[in-house]
Protein 1
Amino acid sequence: MIFPWPKNFFSRTEISFTNVIIILNTLLYFTFFYNTDNQKVKSELFNNTGISITSEYYQRHLEKYQTQPHYKQILETYDFKDRKHQYFISSFAVRDKFFLEQVEKENFDKDEVRKNYWNDLISKYKMEVKEQVLFIMGLSHGNKETLSWITYQFSHMTFWHLLSNMLFIFLLGYWIEGVIGSFGFILLYLFSGVAGGMFYLYFSPNTLLPMVGASGSVSGLIAFYCFYESKIRTRFFYFLSPQKGLNGLIYLPTLIIIPMFLMTDLSSFLGQIPGLSSGVAFTAHLGGAIFGGLLGISLKRSLHVMKKI
């Protein structure tokens, strides 16, 4: 385990936007997401009968539109007769925007009673999803309201997700705020999140799965720091074990942060089936990082030109 470790680590208690961002994220988590069950809707759609019908309909849909690369990949990856696979397949289906639009227009089942039963289940499911905190505050193709582009950046489903993002804001936020000011810091945070959201929606055109978390914004902060201070060496704290010599402080090139924390996102994105992620929005991380990195490079060059003048 290794993290950037700034100097004066325990003296950062002054009022700043970095503190405000951390406090706001934490308050929203404990207000809206702590002790909530948003992982899945408790619906009959996920009982044995519902799963069986959904996976069957989805298979027919995939076979009809298998010219789409990721549809063909799903057909080749999963066994539609296997009960465990059917559960995953039906989970994919109910968040596939294109499938839900087409299933209302096309007749995948000659049994009208069976079809009407499934239609009732899917209608109830859609209503239940829209009542979830995850859907209301998250960003998705089902909720692209102006406010959701902001609220998703301050929402976290799990405590560990919140903790990891707040740790990086705490480690890098004060330095960034000292360089570009409080107003510049909040704009960098928000617009990195917007860039992350745009990447997520663009590269997942069919998914209705809401995205939450500050990871896109944090990736923007990390990339900004890396490219703005690309020529310095950053102090890191490493921990392999409590044994002497296997933990401590070390100075490394700043740009090592990019492969250390962001290359895994790129490899994971390239390795997943498009639109059917494992629950981690790798594209949002990449979008935020690209925005933050470009801003860091641009600002550094602008200041360099101004010094020459």
Note: The chain has 13 helices and three strands.
Protein 2
Amino acid sequence: MAKISQPQKIVEFLKANANQKFNARQIAESIVAAYSNDYIEKRQNPRFENEKAFITQIVAEIGAQKGLIAKIDKHIFWQDKPRPRIYWYDPDKKTGEPVSFETDENNDDVEIEIPSLSAKSLTEHDLYPILIEYLKSELKLYCQRIDEKRSKNSHGLGGNQWLHPDIVAMQPIDKKWDELIRNCVKQGAGQSVRLWSFEVKKELNSTNARKSFFQTVSNSSWANEGYLVATSISDANVEQELRMLSSLHGIGIILLNPENPSESEMMLPSKSRPTVDWQSVNRILVENIDFKDYIELVSTYYQTGRVRAKDWNKI
């Protein structure tokens, strides 16, 4: 019997349990049990320290593959909120407009490389690929890591403090526009992309919340969208403080779920800026080669309207 892809496994499971609702973990456990032979080799990967880590990987892949699942059968539906996301198969519901989705090179078994999560010692660097996977699969952004160690530091000791965002991204908002519209926007100096910037912290607490927030204000306010990202907020008082600061300064807050990036939450949306602060962009570009590469890719998209997937989402 030919091995079927993971999205097909998910569809078959949901169809067999029509009109019943499941979260991604329930689906992962069910398809791994039903197709155990298909997962023997993958289970042996040394980065999975135990069964929980292995199942967590499958859960992450399900979130990233939801567009592919909808492509296979338009009677598959999901509900994003409240979290966790719920999936079900409804043979009688009208599907309406096709679900919007994107794939990488038509690969229907997307492999999401996430760090082992059995230990509680995740570093900020461990969070970067997890955040990129969330931004790529959920928000359809094209991301780049900015390494401050690759800066020239021409302004001397402390001269680049709070200058570098951790992750930057491009959102090509014209991707599905008619070519006539794209040309009109280009000739009229309109906006065909939006630029995003992210500062990452493990936790936001009473000690570091304000400092982290204003660090994000400093290194992300050049972008159309600026976000502070953390895996947790220590208590309600810190959350209230962040809400007040976000309202004043327009920086958004994302709660990142390391075990399942697709279940991360945009707790506070950023206040979108209509234009990019190109003077600030130039300041970072002159100092940092990673950021220069990012702007070169943005410039290429402006000129050609094309994105090469292999140029993006790298750590």
Note: Strands lie at 22-23, 76-79, 86-89, 142-145, 167-172, 193-204, 225-233, 252-255, 265-268.
Protein 3
Amino acid sequence: MMLISETKDIRIDKYLSAKTNYSRETITKMITEGFILVDGKIVKPSYKLKENEEIKIDESFTKTTDLKPSDIPLEIVYEDEDILVINKQSGLVVHPGAGNYDNTLVNALIHHTHNLSKIGPDTRPGIVHRLDKDTSGLMLVAKSDKAHIILAEDFKNKRIHREYVALLVGVLPTSKAFIDAPISRDKQNFQKMSIEKGGKEARTHLTVMKKYANYTLVRLVLETGRTHQIRVHMSYIGHPVFNDPVYGQKKATEFGQFLHSEYLKFHHPITGELLEFRTNIPQEFQDFLDTLEKTNS
């Protein structure tokens, strides 16, 4: 659907709720997930329209509520009747969104099981937290609603311990660092995040694992879980994650950014048992490190 704005200084969510059959809540979700564009750009629901702006509405949003199972291979690290722990491969989007409705982790999950929590949006059954498309590693999934509610609270109250491994561009001058820099949506590009005064608090602990000639391998522990937090923080300190074209340099290989969720520790939401999981970095990541080792020696 295509509309041309006939007025100005009115919020887009309010304007479209009057001009279409969608509820304001649905319109907000569509805008946030990129299904509505203004002159080809993603905007906020609070964006105030100008006259004669082109509003493009991707009506396939309604199709995403009717999720289809996809036979995508999953590496299941742990599973019981309440939770799943997945080792997500790089390149896999977590949930359906604009332009990708059938080839996501959610589609793979509903192919694997009919038992996923129903807390939250219809397009995200079981999803308690996310990893970026090109970030690999451990992810928690809720199968029961009770588990979902408890895990969401545990994430909110920082009771779930996560550690990441990343290869950064350049050589860090120190062996440890603590980045405490607030993050908010980038004002120039709504698809990116940036360091902004007044943004949401974001804290990352960094420990150097290995220094190479032009790179640094680091371990990262998150205190908070903001969108793109590690990638934004690493770019902010001048050492972006290798192969991240959004916050760093141009893409050097076909593999995604060299960022892996390696370690996860939490109490089971139902039994209270302390669970710990660790996974190896992807083979492409390891192969590149092996190459660096050879040139380093």
Note: Residues 76-296 form a domain with the Pseudouridine synthase fold (CATH 3.30.2350.10).
Protein 4
Amino acid sequence: MLWRIARKEFTELVRDGRFRWSAVFVLLLLMASVGMGWKNYREVSAQHRTAQEAMRAFWLNQGEKSPHSAAHYGLYAFKPRTPLSLVDQGVDAFTGVSVWLEAHKQNEFKFRPAQDATAVRRFGELTAAMALQLLMPLLIILLTFSSLAGEREQGVLRQLLSLGVRKRVLALGKALGVAGALGAILVPATVLGVMALALTDDTGALAGSWTRMALMGFLYLTYFAVFIVVSLAVSAQAASSRMALLILLGFWIVNGLLAPKAVTDIAKRLYPTPSAFAFATDVQKALANGVDGHNPRDKRNEALKVQTLKQYGVSRIEDLPVNFAGIALQADEEYGNEVFDRAYGTLWQTYTNQNAAYQLAGLVAPVLSVRALSMGLAGTDFEQHSHFASAAESYRRMLVKKMNDHMIDNAGKQDFAYMVNAEVWKTVPTFEYTLPDVRWVLGNQITSVLLIGVWAIAGIVALVVASNRIRTD
């Protein structure tokens, strides 16, 4: 009986012209979004590889100069695009794609596509994630709002129940029928997406993304299942199909349109961030006057001089067996690192708190949990941006220390007149970045994982309760 009900529901949906037109529209949007994501990924990945190679050549061919001048010469680190960014671009457009690494400074990321976006584009960019998070739930609502309420209005529901069809079996069969109809849209889109990823991957990155892909697919299937069971539960209890449609459309508007913006604004109010100008000013003050405001650079340098002379048992800088200028530069660098760690640590903790509030709000709107998890699995969330930023900063500190240490050991009394060539530049390895694994991602998204599970369980319970109390009047 269950499969007969499911087959009947599937057949009726497929034969319905409204479903066919809606399905074609959604499928075309999904295909278009995947196509645009594929094009963007290929272009950006090619630019990334070219830029990386150019930066390495830029560093190796900088000519003869002082090691510390080379540290100031610096180079760019470019954040790689992940294969699944084809589906969900996340916050990449707002966080920037590269950062300049140089001595004495921890720079902000540059080249944010959102800064160059037109006013129309800022309303939202067509991506596969947007279509899956907003359009598919709307289609589910249009397919299911009259599944039970409409049959009750037509008198069909009373006849079915009088034949001995169990209410729970009827509801489950309709859910399976709707799921089958959705599969007619999702299967072609999934095949297209996998083909696009396979065609895009020419570096082997896709081989390490299968687990992420599988989890992302399971995430969206769970999300669609939530909308199916919630929609059927409302249809079972609503006084009419029109009332069911109004309730479900209200839920869709709150979930997909109102909640994301409202929660973002609330999170910013709860955990406000300083302006870029105020942040930069505070960092410069701390570098010049000390973290506590009472330890200026001149005082620190004088204390370092006394300490170094005592360490080597000499009374004059000229008698040191090492280069004091290099020691002073590295000491200033390490003090600056403490300032940067404190300033950026506070800033990033604020962003982490905002994200935690955003994830927790998934209790009100499931799309918030889905968005957080989708970006995490795609490698385009803030946590993985922060992970890359930390890796780039560690590389910057290594590069600067290597240059200063070389100056300490070899410059003698030449100070900044000491020159080196490409042999020293080659001692600095190429910057390489590895994405964190899936367990790391899920660990950062544990709230979203739990809440999407809560929504799935709550939806099933609601459907079971509603199906046992299906209105027949």
Note: The radius of gyration is 30 Å.
